[in-house]
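Quarterly update, task 2.4: nickel (II) ion-bound model.
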Amino acid sequence: MPILDVENLSVSFKQYATGLKQVHHQVISNLSISLEAGEILAVVGASGSGKSLLAHAILGILPSNARTSGTIKYAGEILTSKRQKALRGKEIAIVPQSVNFLDPLMRVGKQVRTSVKSGDAAALQREVFGRFHLKKEVETMYPFQLSGGMARRVLLSTAMVSGAKVIIADEPTPGLDPVVIKEALNNIREFADNGCAVLFITHDIESALKIADKIAVFYAGTTVEIAPVENFKGQGEALRHPYTKALWRALPQNDFIPIPGSQPHPTELPTGCLFAPRCPLATSECQEVLPDMRFLRNGMVRCIHAN
Ligand SMILES: Nc1ncnc2c1ncn2[C@@H]1O[C@H](COP(=O)(O)OP(=O)(O)OP(=O)(O)O)[C@@H](O)[C@H]1O
Ligand code: NI
């Protein structure tokens, strides 16, 4: 049984257009992912593809003008907002994308120690700070006294000491130096190897391939493919979706050919397949309905032409 199971999640935002007219912008559409204990699922996709909103939906911290549908289950049971609140920071921890999530009025050592559920909180906090090369004096500092990189390492420390069974790491590494990035990635892998599950959100396919088991590729608010990491090799022959193949080939070490066009904004989503306007394989059928995710060769794809 998956530890975390997101089924058919859609998220929209209510916004006021001209006058009092309300419009709903769909930012996540029919998204399903699941996460097993011991596994790292990386979520990759362009800016605005819905990665952070997925994280916030799982934790129950979407803004109040968001509407959601679909189900999210944790350990087989539906995550109601009451359960989300009870499990947040305890069973399910986040390494947030923004360092503004730190409490500006609390010394950072204390912030990390309050996340410890059992054992010697101070000892655990010091151990994890040591691992992330944070000196002893950092403990007594306030967030405004930290550099961006230090603040990120404090956020990572908070999740690592929490004893959570699921960690959602939302772009945990930007601004860190390469040694600390390596350390952080190793720590995340170790965390999964100890039986926990990680949803690792990143722009960086390279980092994802280093530690993840599977990669979910997001496009315009939904998954287009979920593939085992081994499929990312060569010319991308083993990959399923035209967007994933194009992303892979666009990497500097591959063909370095950018994908023409751009991801549609939530206010102007096409009907049918969201990638169709940029897709070399698109036919008139693709413009009719959003294809479902389907199994294909040990992975999943949302494309009627994939084979
Ligand atoms: N509070 C909000 N109200 C309206 N639209 C929103 C709100 N928050 C996010 N969005 C929109 O939802 C879409 C997805 O945003 P999200 O933050 O999940 O993207 P992301 O994939 O995490 O991007 P990045 O890689 O830049 O962090 C974007 O188009 C964004 O503009
Ligand atoms: Ni984000």
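Highlight for this quarter: The longest helix spans residues 178-193.
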